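Slide 14.
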Amino acid sequence: MTTICIKQNQLPSLLSLLAKAMLKKGREPLPSINITIDGFTFDRDNVNRYNTCCGLPQDRLPLPYLFVATQPAQLLLLTHPSVSLKLLGMIHTHVSFHQQTPLQIGKAYDFTLGVIQCIQTDKGLEIELEGRFTLDSVYLASYRSRCLLRDKLPTNDRKKTTDATGDEGGQSLAWTKRDKLTLTPQIARGYAAVSGDYNPIHLHWLTAKPFGFKAPIIHGMYSVAKMFAAIDSTVNQVEFTFRRPAFLPSIAELEVREGELRLINSEGKPLVEGHYC
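Slide 15: predicted structure.
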């Protein structure tokens, strides 16, 4: 196992790591790599800018921000010299969060990021990373992020991979319409400014097209943040599954029912599905 110990202020910028990621080639399983950061802190100004952009309360540390704040560490791991994996075209498919104790803005924690699994599935190479926050060796909170590097599928198989609705098997409570989200390129660029995620697929149709998208798409983690803002109660565990991209500009509708949320497009198809408790 390779362990990288680094200080938070030594992490490269997301922009430089994205540039490095574009040069990655190969399709080898991820080696065992851990990144550790002692004394990781969440800056109040950065958290509040994120909260303002996503409609979240000020001076609170929302669970999705645990992922956002540590994105440089994620890309540092994926662009490590021992990694031989083409990162372009990788799809974010799932993210989950758990907290034993809510983390606080400005307090120092120990953060560890590692590879949980890297397996070949019938859809492609699936990669899962886990980020864990501890204090004095006591576990406090974590997230898991799953991505897919898709194999080329026959045309008649593609629809089967994207049309899940989350309502299979038995009767369920009806969905209640909660809110409409207007998604625009301007919103995507604003989110990029507060999150540091300047992935070109989100910024302009000219930069999204080379990656197979007919138009720019909203950040999946922006959708997650807006959905998280709709949860009225304190939650200790929440997960989100990304079903299909939301092209820009477009209008999405947020629907809720007990313990569940979903974001649907104008055709009524799910973009993101969430469960919490």
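Speaker note: Residues 162-277 form a domain with the Thiol Ester Dehydrase; Chain A fold (CATH 3.10.129.10).
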